[in-house]
Amino acid sequence: MHQTFRRLFDAAKQVRPTISSVADLARALNQSEQTINNWAYRGNGVSKQGRLLAQRELGISATWIDDGQGQMLSSADPGNTNIRPADIGMRRVPLISSVQAGQMTEAVNPFPPGVAFEYLLTDLQLSEHAFALEIEGQSMEPEFKEGDRIIVDPGLQAQPGDFVVAKNGREEATFKKYRPRGIGAGGREVFELVPLNTDYPTINSEHEPARIIGVMVEHRRYRRR
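Structure tokens predicted for Peptidase S24 (225 residues):
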């Protein structure tokens, strides 16, 4: 049995006495029994994602599971607190400009390596060409402030009410709420790109060039004094 799994299993039984078997641990972590058994007897033991799950769900330190050093619990009393350690980002998402996003000729057209200003870390399961943008202007206030950042997945199909990044007639990316309007002349889908700030105009794809690039999957709001 791998040492990381032995540490996890023994600690789980201490912090949650109802756990007494692999099946119990699997239910507590919302994983299959096969996954838990793989941690015990195959590969490198408990995966990084598994350690983070144990930290989030049971309060057992992910680093302690990995090396047995330091405190076993990530907080003094994980069951009686309204905060918990944040998940560690495992996926790097490039932060690009609205111009770079507008240069994507297709929804899943990759941008060249090295074009990012910086990278954001996320634990979301995203398609290969996901990217991040920084909000510019005031058209999406009050929900989205200038300087907030969003993560966008080009691999998702926009649904009514989604927030999307679209390519406009100026070959730049714009961020708006998606509202389908049926099928127009020539059999093409007609949609509107709706600002949340009513002082700004709605874009109608039947009247102005517009193409959906991707769907927002994460919003990072930064509070300023």
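The mean pLDDT is 83.
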